[in-house]
Design the sequence.
């Protein structure tokens, strides 16, 4: 059960979920447009102004954008299952699975596949793996090579571009995307697979690096990779999702850097692949969907809504963010790490603050037989005493909170009941005692009334700031404990995130992790390191 | 303090001693003017908000990567009202409807970190969804489906299975918030005794009288499971196996934690109740729930 594809044409968005084609509307509703074959693989969609075609499960469907009628294009038009579709220069293109054949429709007519018929790629013998239309050109990949066709205006409209031949194939049918005014794909050739390429003209340029390739080539399979591209804040991202491996990578053309995205499985404590596998932009939103459900999501960077941060979670599930830094070493000298500061934007906590916990209050009292009791407060505000306590007994005095004219000494009797004994008035005594409940989450105040009766009242809950955890490895394999650092409640913009006395090492890697639903903007790391 | 190289992209080399950088759900951004507090900073990868849920029509087809699961069994709750002590029930709560509306709740669990589709394909069944994966021996709420009338049948799930493990090796822990010795103050919670049919590999059929007597079939390695559960009062049931005639003596009693071993007959013979929905102890039945749990080796 999952989304199998998203497509937008002229402000109308269509999505395939399992065996059904939907139109998705701006008001977060959707209408079923009919049934399509379901092989649990992504669908391929292309459109003219009047017609939308969908290749799904080997069958080809036509959705009339004027009449909203979905029909099946007879399979007899083709020599085999339709694998992928495209559109260029008023022609629909249909790639036939497990062949070197692609069909071109009649002009603006996805029901006519005889006028132009089919072409066989002859410049290489391999079957075609993937296809993408970009810049009015048809890119056709085998597993080891690529050829590009253009609209030549001949009787069969498309011919091979002179020089449009690349000795680099495609490793995953659904990996090619249009991005940054060119084409990106997960490549393969006779020498190996799982290198990410971008086209520079008709020359492939490697955009993956050894580390990314080491990761990707370690996956059990890469041919099921699914790519999509999107732009956000001027970053043009290429996302490659590896369903079998449960990994999702993103490449940013703005920085030429890779990062990983994933859904944090709180039950098992590890990352799975990102929830999105398909993307379209419409209604001013990045609409994505794919893995694990038939949900279409709105994807956006965290935005302040006046009290909390929208888009700071994955639809309510906490997003775990991790940064493991580069090595810190003073030429392998054994040096002390006196302190580390994580310089990030602090004070971004939500309003009200995140629920926290604190140590429950424990007041040690002594009775007349010198037995010790611990006085606390339960979760609903009732005072408790527990015998057999240890520690130093405390002597507490209070002035009554009603008039502040009487003073009382707090004590406990032989059966553990709280006692209040009148003592001479002293204006310096407090009138209240803040307390934390047994479960550590509730705040109460204890006070005494004019007649010497102990009273408690709730005083809110324990709150906390957003937190990060910091840990480190001195051997790149084993890790220290995680230490929690506060990052400032809402408005605490001057909060500093620091950890002192972090031991000594010759070579260290720091790691920070965070899950609280705030926008984590990490500027730099500072470390005081020396002999 | 001098800077250390905290900010950067993912770059985990073959040897983590060479470079072990990792950047997950954060992305680097270069400060283009070059006059910022750092050349590169990390910003949060975008989050998600649900926009719309597409509800396919017709029978769903399992995803290609349906994961491993082992054995399963069903338990049912039959009661008279919503009650207010169900806080610890590992099911959806609050779905109480008058009349004979049955609330169908499914839980599942799987191994290897994959997900398991809970698929309802009967008419009028909605809300089919995936379940996240708790560890072995832990139940986990997935979703509920509305089952409109008693006597209907509902396909629970199906999918490819490997590494099938015998039924008898697993223990399930169930938390049930109730105060009555028979379970919830307003209902009863017990292992299902009525017929459960397992279609195995679409080629043979195993009948399992689950679960508190024995597993009559031998462990198999099926390629497809189809769980067919029939909520039937009377027909197909007897006083010995009707879910309406049973109460638990070991599971869910007193609303605490019950441990039920599928390996053997840990259940004492049940007391019998009048075989009628309307004569059910506590009043007319207007609620029934079922739980299906798949059991697997811990990942």
Sequence:
């Amino acid at each position: 059960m999952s989304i199998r594809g998203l497509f937008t044409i002229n402000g109308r968005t269509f999505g395939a979920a399992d065996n059904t084609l939907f139109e998705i509307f701006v008001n977060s509703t959707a209408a079923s447009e009919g049934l399509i074959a379901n092989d649990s693989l992504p669908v391929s969609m292309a459109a003219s102004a009047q017609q939308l075609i969908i290749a799904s499960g080997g069958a080809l469907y036509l959705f009339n954008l004027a009449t909203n009628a979905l029909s099946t294009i007879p399979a007899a038009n083709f020599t085999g299952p339709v694998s992928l579709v495209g559109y260029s220069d008023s022609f629909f293109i249909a790639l036939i699975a497990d062949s070197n054949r692609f069909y071109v429709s009649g002009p603006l007519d996805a029901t006519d596949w005889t006028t132009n018929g089919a072409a066989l790629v002859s410049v290489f013998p391999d079957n075609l793996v993937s296809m993408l239309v970009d810049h009015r050109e048809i890119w056709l990949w085998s597993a080891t090579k690529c050829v590009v066709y253009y609209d030549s205006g001949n009787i069969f409209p498309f011919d091979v571009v002179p020089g449009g031949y690349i000795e680099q194939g495609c490793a995953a049918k659904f990996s090619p995307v249009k991005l940054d005014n060119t084409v990106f794909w997960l490549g393969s050739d006779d020498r190996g697979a799982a290198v990410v390429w971008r086209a520079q003209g008709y020359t492939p340029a490697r955009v993956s690096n050894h580390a990314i390739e080491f990761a990707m080539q370690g996956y059990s399979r890469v041919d099921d990779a699914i790519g999509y591209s999107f732009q956000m804040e001027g970053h043009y991202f290429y996302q490659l999702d590896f369903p079998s491996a449960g990994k999702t990578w993103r490449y940013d053309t703005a920085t030429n850097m890779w990062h990983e995205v994933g859904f944090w499985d709180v039950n098992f404590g590890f990352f799975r692949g990102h929830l999105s596998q398909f993307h379209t932009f419409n209604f001013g939103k990045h609409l994505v969907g794919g893995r694990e459900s038939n949900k279409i999501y709105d994807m956006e960077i965290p935005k302040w809504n006046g009290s909390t941060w929208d888009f700071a979670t994955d639809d309510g599930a906490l997003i775990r963010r991790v940064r493991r830094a580069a090595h810190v070493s003073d030429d392998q000298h054994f040096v002390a790490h006196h302190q580390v500061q994580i310089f990030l934007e602090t004070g971004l906590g939500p309003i009200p603050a995140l629920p926290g916990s604190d140590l429950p209050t424990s007041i040690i009292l002594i009775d007349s037989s010198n037995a010790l009791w611990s006085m606390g407060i339960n979760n609903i505000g009732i005072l408790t005493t527990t015998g057999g306590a240890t520690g130093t007994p405390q002597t507490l005095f209070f002035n009554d909170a009603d008039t502040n004219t009487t003073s009382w000494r707090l004590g406990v009797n032989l059966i553990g009941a709280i006692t209040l004994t009148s003592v001479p008035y002293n204006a310096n005594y407090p009138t209240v005692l803040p307390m934390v409940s047994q479960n550590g989450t509730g705040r109460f105040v204890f006070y005494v009334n004019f007649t010497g009766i102990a009273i408690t009242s709730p005083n809110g809950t324990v709150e906390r700031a957003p937190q990060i955890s910091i840990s480190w490895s001195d051997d790149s394999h084993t890790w220290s404990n995680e230490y929690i650092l506060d990052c400032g409640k809402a408005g605490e913009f001057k909060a500093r995130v620091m950890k002192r006395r972090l031991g000594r090492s010759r070579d260290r890697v720091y790691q920070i992790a965070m899950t609280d639903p705030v926008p984590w903007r990490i500027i730099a790391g500072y470390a005081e390191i020396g002999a | 303090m001098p800077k250390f190289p905290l900010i950067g992209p993912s770059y985990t080399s073959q040897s983590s001693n060479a470079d072990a950088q990792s950047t997950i759900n954060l992305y680097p951004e270069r400060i283009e003017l070059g006059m910022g507090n750092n050349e590169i900073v990390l910003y949060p990868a975008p989050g998600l908000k649900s926009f719309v849920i597409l509800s396919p029509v017709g029978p769903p087809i399992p995803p290609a990567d349906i994961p491993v699961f082992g054995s399963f069994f069903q338990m049912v709750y039959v009661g008279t009202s919503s009650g207010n002590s169900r806080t610890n029930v590992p099911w959806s709560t609050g779905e109480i409807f008058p009349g004979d509306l049955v609330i169908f709740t499914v839980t599942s669990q799987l191994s290897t970190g994959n997900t398991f589709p809970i698929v309802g394909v009967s008419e009028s069944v909605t809300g089919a969804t995936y379940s996240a994966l708790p560890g072995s021996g832990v139940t986990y709420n997935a979703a509920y489906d509305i089952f409109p009338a008693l006597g209907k049948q509902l396909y629970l799930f199906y999918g490819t299975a490997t590494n099938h493990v015998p039924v008898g090796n697993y223990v399930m822990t169930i938390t049930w918030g109730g105060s009555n010795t028979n379970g919830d103050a307003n209902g009863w919670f017990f292992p299902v005794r009525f017929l459960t049919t397992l279609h195995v590999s679409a080629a043979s059929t195993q009948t399992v009288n689950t679960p508190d007597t024995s597993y009559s079939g031998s462990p198999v390695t099926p390629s497809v499971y189809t769980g067919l559960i029939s909520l039937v009062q009377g027909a197909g049931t007897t006083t010995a196996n009707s879910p309406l005639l049973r109460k638990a003596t070991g599971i869910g009693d007193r609303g605490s934690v019950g441990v039920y071993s599928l390996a053997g007959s840990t259940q004492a013979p049940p007391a019998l109740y009048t075989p009628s929905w309307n004569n059910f102890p506590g009043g007319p039945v207007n609620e029934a729930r079922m739980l299906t749990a798949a059991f697997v080796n811990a990942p």
User: Anything to note?
Assistant: DSSP finds no helices and 19 strands in chain B. Confidence is low (pLDDT under 50) at residues 59-299 of chain B.
